[in-house]
Write a structure and sequence with these properties.
The structure holds two protein chains of two kinds.
Chain A (H helix, E strand, L loop, with lengths): L4 E6 L5 H7 L4 H8 L1 E2 L14 E7 L2 E3 H13 E7 L1 H5 L11 H11 L3 H4 L14 E6 L9 E3 L6 H13 L14
Parallel strand pairs in A: 1-2, 1-3, 3-5, 5-7
Antiparallel strand pairs in A: 4-6
Chain B lengths: L1 H10 L7 H12 L4 H11 L3 H10 L11 E6 L2 H5 L2 H12 L5 E2 L5 E6 L11 E3 L2 E3 L4 H12 L30 E3 L12 H6 L4 H11 L11 H10 L5 E7 L8 H8 L1 H15 L1 E8 L7 H13 L16 E6 L9 H8 L23 E5 H13 L1 H5 L9 E8 L5 E6 L4 H7 L7 E6 L5 E3 L18 E6 L4 H16 L5 H18 L5 H13 L6 H5 L2 H9 L1 H7 L12 H12 L6
Parallel strand pairs in B: 1-3, 6-12, 7-8, 7-10, 8-9, 11-15
Antiparallel strand pairs in B: 1-4, 2-3, 4-5, 11-12, 13-14, 13-15
The chains are: A alpha/beta, B alpha/beta.
Chain lengths: ~180, ~600
């Protein structure tokens, strides 16, 4: 039987979840025995090249490109997992959701204290190549169907490891109380 | 402003439990409560500024920003919409030149939405500077704005004739109509104030309670707690000053019968309060009236004054040594949740109207932490008749489980909206006949307001009563031309979102999530699972602290139960999952702000 294929991506996140993923340390060698990786920042493959078994999503969606990538993952992954607070709830980027978009952009590109030198003309970035910002930051499950949620900011390495192993081996994941308690 | 504020603070003896009255006076004088006033109040009442501000921010009719010399609050309830609110609102916006939620640059006029103002039988209606305007049309809206611009006073803007009955009284002079369609023992105009008081002072308080208990009367606000039992609990509660509160907050959309009692039979109500006060041993009664009925203030105060002069209130009432009782009127400031008894108590103490944890119940620890009875207006009126004619007589009306009569507030698609006093046990069908609705044209009836149930023709043979369809008395009728989901259920759900006090996370969050689901279904993006999820999530609201939260999903839950086909017709048959996300819609704002063309 061929090895399960894993793809990962970071949308509106900080790569912290991926860093936490790398914190599985030497177990990554074990993981390489168990799975193959497709698109992922870890191996720097930019595009999904085949049907995958497991997709890990870090971050929610703040722009149109995030939405496209997320949809591409959904189309190609049998199991899709929201990893971490931003993917699950929008996280820190979603703090802008209570502020009108125009105010956010004005603060960032026109009125902010540090804008002066960097943006003399006071224009909003508008190159057609750039993704378009969304009206608010969306958690992933508000855009596509998400199968599992891995909580944490970031989810600890052990949790990510346990989750992957559980899916690969078909066993129940162990989620002790401490894993879901953050205060 | 400073000296006025000081005068008001002094008038209420720098008593922080009278903060509501202080704020109401300042708000109606200046159209807003300034930061300076807040500081002054906080200083004089020995409170922190945020304590003053949190009370202000809780209530719909308080504002820390100017609301206009003329602030127009146009009702946006379901029935107002059915009766043509949209055209009236558009006319107001056109004539004034601003959108709702704003104030003109010169500060003359402010336009605001407001929840049901208790005029469901004469919609669309608006409140302008505490005066009520009913049956508005685009033509009237134009006239009103023209009059404002010409500098007329609000009281000079009415059309030629006032409403019926005491609405014409010199101290009321209102265009509101009573629309009393059917009278019974409570609304019987052959009533003389004082007879019941004369009778009860010959009895002991315990004998009064026994009589009330024998009538089996239950609370008329909707919850139906046995009144005699409540009085007895309070009477037997440990020592302390006892209070009687009368709940005239009547915020349930579609309910307006208390307004009619306050207009036509205020003496009956006050006598009921005196009787309850005697029975429980209270020396003070507080009539808590919703802000929307502020136009009755002068009239009611005058009746109290006369009652004091005649010794129906005051010291040694009607010559009974040691029987002292007086009544004060407390106005609210626009908050549905204050109809919940513990929230009402909080509000009467000058605080945010947030429901308390129970126990302790108000009969043990209520107003100012003293034993308190909170009764509905109608309950107290019925108590007078019970004392006059006896519990046995009262039991001859209604059903064994639900004795007596009920005042119904009927509105919506029928020929004769208004107030009907009927015996408990009437079927919905017979009520539809009575009010001039053609049952075969009726699609649905909302029984008991948004917190009650939306029922269809299968349930029209059910009866009104605590044993079947319990109701605070609101019946809203919808004919077959109405879109129940978008016109009714969505509006009611938005109402609950607006009126949540925010204490419980269930009530703060779930109604918004449910509304999003409903909108998704109305948007033709729903799937089967959405209906199941709404039903499941709706159950969680039962964990809320008060009745508002616990019933906030009822418009959705009862419409799914009784009109499931309306939901099923709108969901997608070919898909199992649809998040409802629309990328075009999500990038629209971003494109507008940055001046880009969507190229998704």
């Amino acid at each position: 039987m061929s090895k399960p294929i894993v793809a990962t991506t970071s949308l509106a996140g900080c790569f912290g979840c991926h860093m936490s993923f790398l914190d599985i340390d030497e177990r990554i060698l074990e993981l390489m025995q168990l799975v193959e990786f497709d698109k992922s920042p870890i191996n720097d493959i930019k595009k999904i090249s085949r049907k995958c078994d497991i997709g890990l999503i870090e971050g929610g969606c703040c722009n149109s490109e995030n939405v496209h990538v997320l949809k591409e993952f959904r189309e190609n992954c049998k199991i899709l997992i929201s990893v971490g607070e931003c993917a699950i709830m929008g996280g820190l980027p979603a703090m802008r959701n209570g502020i009108p978009l125009s105010e956010c952009l004005e603060e960032a590109y026109q009125n902010g204290l540090t804008v002066k030198e960097s943006n003399d003309a006071r224009i909003f970035p508008n190159d057609p190549e750039l993704p378009i910002i969304l009206d608010k930051v969306y958690p992933c499950h508000e855009i596509v169907k998400i199968d599992y949620l891995l909580p944490g900011c970031p989810p600890r390495a052990d949790l990510i490891w346990e989750a992957l192993i559980a899916i690969i081996t078909g066993n129940q994941i162990k989620m002790p109380y401490e894993v879901l308690k953050y205060d | 402003m400073k000296s006025f504020t000081q005068k008001v603070i002094d008038k209420y003896n720098r008593d922080k439990t009278r903060l509501m009255d202080i704020l109401i006076s300042i708000q109606s004088e200046f159209g807003y409560i300034s930061q300076e006033s807040v500081s002054q109040i906080a200083h004089e009442l020995h409170m922190s500024e945020v304590d003053v501000e949190q009370t202000i921010s809780f209530y719909h009719f308080f504002s820390m920003k100017p609301t206009g010399k003329f602030s127009i609050y146009l009702n946006n309830s379901v029935v107002a919409n059915m009766m043509g609110r949209k055209e009236v609102a558009e006319t107001f916006e056109e004539e004034v030149g601003i959108k709702f939620g704003n104030i003109t640059a010169d500060g003359l006029i402010g336009l605001y939405d407001t929840a049901c103002i208790g005029m469901n039988d004469q919609e669309p209606a608006a409140i302008i500077n505490n005066h009520i305007f009913t049956k508005l049309t685009p033509f009237r809206a134009k006239e009103i704005i023209r009059d404002i611009k010409e500098g007329k006073k609000v009281q000079d803007m009415f059309t030629a004739s006032f409403g019926d009955g005491a609405n014409r009284d010199d101290l009321v002079k209102s265009v509101v109509s009573n629309n009393i369609r059917k009278i019974g023992p409570i609304l019987d105009p052959q009533y003389k104030i004082g007879d019941a008081i004369k009778k009860i002072i010959k009895l002991t308080p315990e004998e009064v309670i026994t009589e009330i208990k024998s009538s089996n009367i239950r609370g008329r606000g909707g919850a139906g707690f046995p009144t005699g039992l409540k009085w007895e609990f309070c009477r037997n509660a440990s020592d302390g000053i006892k209070y009687l509160l009368c709940n005239a907050d009547e915020g349930e959309p579609g309910t307006f019968k208390d307004r009619v009692i306050l207009t036509e039979l205020p003496r009956l109500l006050f006598e009921g309060m005196v009787i309850a006060g005697y029975a429980i041993g209270a020396v003070e009664g507080i009539l808590y009236i919703r802000h929307e009925y502020k136009y009755l203030e002068e009239y009611l105060e005058n009746i109290l004054k006369v009652a004091r002069e005649k010794n129906y209130l005051g010291i040694d009432i009607m010559g009974k040594k040691g029987f002292n009782f007086d009544i004060r009127i407390q106005f609210g400031a626009g908050a549905y949740v204050c109809g919940e008894e513990s929230a009402l108590i909080e509000s009467a103490e000058g605080k945010r109207g947030e429901p308390r944890d129970r126990p302790p119940f108000p009969v043990e620890k209520g107003y100012l932490d003293q034993p308190t009875v909170v009764n509905n207006v109608e309950t107290l009126c019925a108590a007078v008749k019970v004392m006059l004619h006896g519990g046995e007589w009262y039991r001859s009306f209604g059903t064994p489980e639900s004795t007596g009569t009920k005042l119904l507030s009927v509105s919506g698609d029928c020929r004769f909206p208004g107030v009907y006093e009927v015996e408990w046990g009437f079927s919905v069908n017979s009520i539809l006949d009575m009010v001039g609705a053609v049952p075969r044209n009726v699609q649905a009836v909302q029984v008991g307001g948004p917190s009650g149930s939306l029922i269809g023709s299968n349930d029209f043979d059910r009866i009104l009563g605590y044993e079947d369809l319990a109701t605070g008395g609101s019946l809203i009728i919808f004919d077959k031309t109405r879109d129940l989901l978008s016109d009714v259920v969505l509006n009611f759900t938005e109402f609950f979102i607006d009126e949540s006090c925010g204490s419980c996370s269930t009530c703060r969050i779930l109604p918004s999530i449910l509304k999003n689901k409903l909108e998704k279904i109305l948007d033709a993006r729903g799937v089967k699972n959405d209906i199941a999820e709404m039903e499941e999530w709706g159950k969680i609201l039962k964990a809320s602290r008060c009745g508002l939260g616990q019933t906030a999903a009822n418009p959705i839950l009862t419409s799914i139960k009784n009109f499931r086909h309306l939901y099923e017709d709108k969901i997608q048959k070919t898909k199992d999952f649809d998040s409802g996300f629309d990328l075009w819609r999500a990038v629209k704002e971003g494109c507008e702000v940055t001046g880009r063309v969507p190229n998704i």
